[in-house]
Specification:
With 241 residues, this protein is α+β, with helices and mostly antiparallel strands. The protein contains three helices and 15 strands. The protein has two domains: 72 residues, OB fold (Dihydrolipoamide Acetyltransferase, E2P) (Beta Barrel), CATH 2.40.50.580; 153 residues, 3-Layer(aba) Sandwich (Trna Endonuclease, Chain: A, domain 1). 17% of the residues lie in helices and 43% in strands.
C-alpha cells in the first residue's frame, strides 16, 4: 500500500481523548494530530516515542494530520491506524499474495450478514474451488506486542470482536467458508496468541470457533518509512494453547 501522503517524523508528547495526540514535529513545532485508533493502544503510546504521521493538506479538517506509526522498544515499528488493516488485506487479496484466499472472482466489502445484524469485512464469491461456496473474512488489527516475538489480541475487552466470532461460526455452520484474519502491524511480532488476561471470553470463543472449523490466519506487515509504503509480507502462526 502506497500511502496517499508522505510520512513525516515527530516525537509523541501524549495521546488523550482516544482520538487525539500531541506531538513535536521535526521542526520543533507542537501540534495536535488525529489518532485513528479506538483501542487501548497498550504499549504503543509511551511519551517520548518516535512517531510518523501524514499531513492531509486539507485546511477544512480540524486536525489535518493523522498518526500512522510509532516506534516501540526503540526498535520495532507499529502501525496504529486501524483503518489501514482492511486496506492492506484488500490489496493482498487483489494482488493474489494470500495463497489460501485466492480463486475468487468477486471481492465485496461491508456486506450485511449473520444473525446479529453485522457487516463482514470481505465477502469472496464466484470461486473455482470445489465446492463453490462464498468465503466470509473478518479482519482484526494486531498492534500489541508482549515481548519475545509474541503478539496478542485484543488489547482491550471487545464485545464487538466476540460477536464477530459468533457470526463467523454461524456462517461456517451454514456451509460457508469463514475466516478470521489477523493483520499484524508490528514488525517485532512472530506469532499470535489470544490475550486471555485482557479478554478471557474472547480467548475462549476464539478457541471454540477454531476447533469447530473457522479458519484463523495471521499476516504481518512490512513498513518502508522512506517510501511511505506498508505491505503484508509474512504469514505468522496463530497459537491457541
Amino acid at each position: 500500500m502506497q500511502l496517499e501522503k508522505p510520512l513525516q517524523a515527530g516525537i509523541l508528547q501524549r495521546r488523550y481523548k482516544r482520538f487525539l495526540a500531541d506531538i513535536t514535529t521535526a521542526d520543533g513545532e507542537s501540534i495536535t494530530i488525529h489518532c485513528p485508533n479506538t483501542g487501548s493502544m497498550k504499549n504503543c503510546q509511551e511519551p517520548g516515542s518516535r512517531v510518523w504521521y501524514t499531513d492531509s493538506g486539507n485546511p477544512k479538517r480540524k486536525y489535518a494530520c493523522t498518526w500512522e506509526l510509532v516506534e516501540v522498544d526503540s526498535r520495532y515499528l507499529v502501525g496504529i491506524n486501524t483503518g489501514r488493516a482492511n486496506k492492506l488485506v484488500h490489496e493482498a487479496l487483489r494482488s493474489g499474495w494470500l495463497d489460501t484466499l485466492q480463486g475468487y472472482k468477486s471481492i465485496r466489502s461491508e456486506v450485511p450478514y449473520g444473525e446479529q445484524k453485522s457487516r463482514i469485512d470481505f465477502l469472496l464469491e464466484d470461486s473455482h474451488h470445489k465446492p463453490n461456496v462464498p468465503c466470509y473474512i473478518e479482519v482484526k488489527n494486531v498492534s500489541l506486542g508482549a515481548g519475545g516475538g509474541l503478539g496478542k489480541f485484543p488489547d482491550a475487552v471487545t464485545s464487538r470482536g466476540q460477536k464477530h466470532l459468533q457470526e463467523l461460526l454461524h456462517m461456517h455452520q451454514q456451509g460457508y467458508r469463514a475466516v478470521l484474519c489477523f493483520c499484524v502491524q508490528h514488525s517485532g511480532i512472530e506469532r499470535i496468541e489470544p490475550a486471555d488476561e485482557i479478554d478471557p471470553e474472547y480467548g475462549r470463543l476464539l478457541r471454540e470457533v477454531a476447533s469447530r472449523g473457522v479458519e484463523v490466519l495471521a499476516y504481518r506487515a512490512d513498513f518502508d518509512v522512506a517510501a511511505s509504503r506498508i505491505e503484508l509480507r509474512t504469514e505468522l502462526p496463530v497459537i491457541l494453547p
